[in-house]
Amino acid sequence: MRKENSSFKTDFLSEAGTFMENRDYFAYVELDDRACWIVADGCDNDVEVRSAEMAVQCLLENFTHRPTMSKRKLESYLQEAQDWLRLESRRVRLKASLIMVVTDYTRIVWAVAGNARLYHFRGGRLLGQSKDLSLAQAMADRESISAYKVDRHEERHNLLQYVGKPEGLEPFISKKTALNDGDVLLLVTPGMWESVDVPEMLDSLEDTEDPTALVDTLEEVLLSKQQPVIGNYTAAAVYVDKVYKEDKKKWSKWVKRIALVMIPVIIAAGFAIYYKSRTAARMAEGLANMLEYEQTGDTYVEERNYAQALKSYSEARAEAKKLKDKVHIALYGVKYKKVDLIVAGDGFLKDGDYEKALTQYKKAKEETKNDGLYDQQELDQKISQIDEYVRIAAIVQEADLKAEGQDYSAAVLLYKQARKAALNVGFADGEKEIKTKLDEAEAKIAELVKEQKLLKAENLEKRGDRSFAAGNYEAAIDAYTQAQAIYQEIAVLEPVFKLERSIGKAEDKLNPVPSPAAGGDAGMGDGGGAGSDGTGSGSEANSAAGGSSAGSGNASSSAGNNSGASGSGGTGNNSGASGSGADASGAGGTANSTADAGSSAGSGAGTGGGTVDATPAATPAPTKAPDQEATQQANTTG
């Protein structure tokens, strides 16, 4: 077993510096045939998730499950960590810079994504170190700056590659490097290598003999500089006391195995040549398809059919990816983006999200300003159209507030204004919605008017009832008539018929119809000679339920004759009518009558002059049987 026949010692330290939290992370695993050390620096500010720890745990989990030094597999492990950080980037974008070292206890390989570093020391000298994937290192590679200035350059933290990068990760993975007994591996984050230079690392290495002493010495050097701000720093040291010794006899076995493998390889090479010829044919076909899709997309753009143009450019880019033609991939990506902005704007416009639609159209105008395929005037019209839509929406919103406040008259005016503007700009969907709201507001107004008229009619009806009760029948009829007209106007029919009966009752009270006579008193008398005395006699007659009595007599009168008065009465009432004169003689006379079912009164005048008094009964007499009589007495004096 490789681990048992080798000796690797590891120790580390990781501190927060002058910050409250330490976002660095270190972990390692030593298996029977492989070992792995990883140092990571969290580059984001998420307070809940530790991106460095997530990336390291993901890598170690995959490595423990499938230990390997294969470049392809290590890259797949890094890609899985990359995908995990991107998936968890919900609040903020998670980012981590890391260095990963893998060994089979004989050789090492390392993978870099960011600016965490590996220093490989041998015999008290720096044998090699990893390169940062930063803009400062890229400038040094182009010889724009000196390699010694990378550690202090302002662009040293401007990372070109890191775990969690949105565009995709392209890490650097080294070739295999042989280990010797006594080698020292030092893995550090920027917080350490920014403050401790390589000469200081060599001095610390010379004064120590184990990893614990080395990392402690490096920390002392860092803190001795008394910097006002110290970032998170991590250092992990691996002392290779003994590497695993390969058995040289195994090499001959490998040669034989290789020879056996070469035979099928040669056969496979023949098939590969054939396959490549087929591949070349497919590439030619793919190239033709790619150019055709591009031309079709351009035609659709000229026809303003942006949805189809988007589809064509997408297919052209897919063909370019199959051909691995980076130039055309970038070209079609730009074309796709321009059309996609317009299509997205159209989609937001259809959904009524005018702010987003306006943003997309403005971006499209900026992207296409130097592209002859696109009509800038059309984009200006779309932008102006959305501005008008936004204005209409503001008017509708104001109208909605008026309607919520029950100011329906103001709401109707605003809805009409918005609808007119929508019709002018061809805003069909908006006009339909505004029309619905306008109808609702007008219906509310009509309902309120109806309620007001109904209340007015009810008040008039009550006024009529009060006038009727007070005997003011003309006022009652007038109030009833007005109320009836309002009820008819608002189509409330039940009170109309009720008021018709009330008006009839009031008219009956105002203009009563006389009832036919049910009974009466009559008398006749003759007179002769002026100043003579006369006497008369009367007779009594019994009457049931309105019977009559009559009498006759003679009297002397200066005028000549008189006639008896006649009267009529309804049930229980008797009213006297007029006659030419009451029974009279001489200077004057008096007549009294009493009736049980009513009262009669007569008045008259003669030459001799006379008066008639009528006294009604205090209370109506009950109806009596035919053998009972209502007594009427009349006395005449002269």
Automatic annotation (TrEMBL):
Residues 629-638 have a biased composition (Polar residues). Residues 520-537, 601-611 have a biased composition (Gly residues). The keyword rRNA processing does not apply. Residues 538-565, 574-600, 612-622 have a biased composition (Low complexity). It comes from the Bacteria. This is Serine/threonine protein phosphatase. Keywords: Coiled coil, Membrane, Transmembrane, Transmembrane helix. Residues 508-638 are annotated as: Disordered. Residues 431-463 form a coiled coil. The chain crosses the membrane at residues 258-275.
